[in-house]
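User: I'm putting together a teaching handout on how multi-component assemblies are represented. Below are the sequence lines for each component of a complex, exactly as they appear in our records. Could you produce the 3D structure of the whole assembly as structure tokens, so the students can see both representations side by side? Please keep the chain order the same as the input.
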Amino acid sequence: MLRDITIGQYYPADSILHRLDPRVKFIVTIVFIVSLFVNNTWTAYLVSTVFLAAVIKISKVPFRFIVKGLKAVVILLMITLFFNMIFTPGTPVFHFWIITITKEGIVTAVRMGIRLIFLIIGSSLMTLTTTPNQLTDGLERLLKPLEKIKIPVHDIAMIMSIALRFIPILLEETDKIMKAQIARGADFESGGLMKKIKSMVPLLVPLFISAFRRANDLAMAMEARCYHGGSGRTQMKPLRYHGRDFGAYIIAAIYFAVCILMRIFGRYLL
Amino acid sequence: MSIKLEHVTYTYNPGTVYEMHALKDVTLEIPQGQFVGIIGHTGSGKSTLIQHFNGLIKPTEGKVLFENQDVWAENYELRKLRFQVGLVFQYPEHQLFESDVMSDVCFGPANEGLTQEECRERAKEALNHVGISEEYYDKSPFELSGGQKRRVAIAGVLAMNPKVLVLDEPTAGLDPEGRKEILDQIAWLHETRGITIILVSHSMEDVARYVERIIVMNEGEKSFDGSCKEVFSHYKELEKIGLAAPQITYIMHALAAKGLDVDLSAITVEEARDSILKALGKEKPCSEILP
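Assistant: Of course. Below is the structure of the complete assembly, with chains in the same order as your input.
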């Protein structure tokens, strides 16, 4: 029932993108997102599209699978596009009641749409090719300098990785409890809003209890293995840059430089 | 009056990398009133199989029939089926949610649309059948011991008065005494209420004592289906799929190999004792002969 959620999911495959250091993927994703907002010409968008398409191709993740993740944000996307369309002043092309759609509005909306879609695809490509553990490892290393100003980076990373690890477990648990209550004749679908909310009680109470029980067990298991926070803790697989990681940095840098150049010389482009 | 599965195939996450065939072309029929054991290794498809019995999951291919009606036909009322085929999941105590035992057991019958009085009546009967006495009715289910919680949860399904009771590993995580108690109560329910019992387990020993028929699942396929004696006679094949026949079967086969004329189909310790004594030419155990 709840197996369709793909945001933050990992897609196992054997590609160079999967083998890249998580720090590289993280930084390149941020660079890519920033580049989308640097872009202000159609040519620049074309370059970004080619870049993204190439990365998707290399990742070996089926395109269908990536697009599935977009479904969840379709409504948000629609609302953004709609307001961009009606609130941008300019030459009107369509007028109805109090709504005026302008030429500039359409252009802004289309660009905004492309930006948002690319942004989502770009970041989900990162999570699709990186296991949650790698992701938090990478984040921990990138944020390490913040420890100097007393930010508990390790603990934050640990909380994040546990939270990520628990998402599928809790989803599965929800599925199980839901089935168990349906087997007892519970009805989660029909009825008005109040009835629906009430029908959630037999699902939520056991779910909370189970979440607390698991948290308790986990804390105990971690303590039993002498976990005491980050200080002096080493890693089994420490992150280390390889040749391919530097290669990826160089490619991303070139891409970003091109984007900036296109911005500077934007008036000569379409 | 039976559950029938015709060529049922079930695939998880079809068309993705996580695709998994949990059931492959399973055909079986369970007549009303039978006590059946479903045995299989972890991941053999037994949990997926039983979820077909009350229409919780829809087969990817094939048909599920209850009392000769296709449960996935257009106008079949699946909810009604669920009151007739009660399904007790693994660790059923994890589904308890009410503030007291009584209301929790009433949840099923209340969903059926019964009045409060009828619900209490049903709940009392069910709790009585699983051996939970009146002093517990107003306690919070979370104050009870593990075995008691399990029994309350089973009562929660039983209170719907199902014609078929399916239990998925009802003894998992209990101590030997708790296991025996629960299984004895289930057997007693089968006798007094005359309902069909489908017991899922991975322990042959547990099941052999009670059931009249065993279905062995392996990698999503039905590999054996018959009486205990029939199934256990394949003990060598059972070993290959990671299961074992009861220890008695091994002892009897070993004795037979040494030339003793014993009954190879014995399952319980008592049967084995009698058969060995007979083979040795003694009618009664020494303890019964001696004063």
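A couple of points students might notice: The radius of gyration of chain B is 21 Å. The first helix of chain B runs from residue 46 to 53.
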